[in-house]
Design a protein that fits this description.
This protein is mainly alpha-helical. The chain is 88% helix and 0% strand. The protein has one domain.
Length: 113
Amino acid sequence: MVNGMSSGKLEGNYLKNIDNSLRFDESAILTNYNLQKSNYSERKLYKNNLIKKNESILKQINETIIDNHFEMIKEIHNILKNSKDLRQKQKFAYCNSQRFFMKLYLERISKKI
């Protein structure tokens, strides 16, 4: 055993150490994989919640815009109906404005449906 030959006991321990280190690496890989999978699931859930929240906000904004267009249409109609001293050119301008808001209103309503 002076020549560097061993009795096999050292080799056995060496193989056990390698086997143990491989098991450790396997568990580290599996742990890392599970962590990545968990992070992916959390990110996906967060993203889905964010999308739902944004869709809700956009829906509320769209409803507000529709309401504002309708209110403008009613206000312009009241002006046209109740103002007797408007000149023809002013009436024409109000009618064009009312037509413009009516188009916007109808576009939003048709998208909603």
